[in-house]
Amino acid sequence: MASSRPAGANRKFFTVEEANRTLPLVRMIVDDIVRQFGAVSDLKQRLSPVRARERRRPSADPYSEEVAQSEAEMEQEEKKLRALIAELEPLGVELKGLPNGLCDFPSLRDGREVYLCWQLGEPEVQHWHELDAGFGGRQRLAAGPASRAGQRSH
Questions:
Q1: Do the domain assignments include residue 151?
Q2: Does some domain include residue 152?
Q3: Other CB atoms within 10 Å distance of the CB of residue 36
Q4: Do residues 19 and 13 touch, judged by C-beta distance below 8 A?
Q5: 58-116 pLDDT, tens per residue?
Q6: CA dist., res. 26 & res. 60, Å (int)
Q7: Which of 23, 127, 134, 152 can bridge 138 by disulfide, Cβ–Cβ 3.0-4.6 Å?
Q8: Overall number of domains in the chain
Q9: Residue of 18, 8, 6 whose CA lies nearest to 150
């Protein structure tokens, strides 16, 4: 369910300062996303053995109505999760990790596109990585005005 947006026109690029100014709103949304993802995961986990049992015994189950209600509830919770994730899109922030609230902010560094990287629980945006490097390729931003990540915003 993580979003991924192709590079190109109409893409917002963040400076480190802009990303950090956006962070209070992003943090609230991502906190809700992570909490909702946990609720959906719990529902799926509880329904999994019931679904497996239904596949083995297709006959009428006395609990089929209750199972149908639980599945409908799960669909509603998934819909809420998708809506929360969609709240990040107009901000230009890309959700990369549901369980841990990992987000990328498109940025420019030395004239090339990179990501400023933030994860729920971190006080501010402190890392960046190449577009194809992912979390494992995170590098610490230089402190103070010498930071080159995100010099320009479009």
A1: no
A2: no
A3: 19
A4: no
A5: 556 666 777 788 889 999 999 999 999 999 999 999 999 999 999 999 999 999 999 99
A6: 46
A7: 127
A8: 1
A9: 18
Q: Residue 37: give the domain boundaries.
A: 16-146
Q: What is d(CA 20, CA 95) in angstroms, rounded to the nearest whole number? A: 16
Residue 126 CB neighbours (<10 A):
18
Q: Where are the alpha helices (DSSP H) in the chain?
A: 16-56, 64-86
- Name 117's bridge partners: 104, 127
pTM of the model: 0.78
Q: Is 40 exposed, middle or buried (0-12, 13-18, 19+ CB in 10 A)?
A: buried
Confirm whether 5 is domain-assigned: no
The reply to whether 1 falls in a domain is no
* Tokens representing residue 96 in the block: 């990369």
Dihedral sign for Cα 133, 135, 136, 142, please.
positive
In angstroms, the CA 137 to CA 153 distance is 23
Alpha-carbon distance values, 120 to 6, 7, 40, 102 (Å):
23, 24, 19, 6
Of the candidates 116, 87, 122, the residue with the CA atom closest to the CA atom of residue 18: 116
Q: What is the pLDDT of residues 91-103, one digit of tens each?
A: 999 999 999 999 9
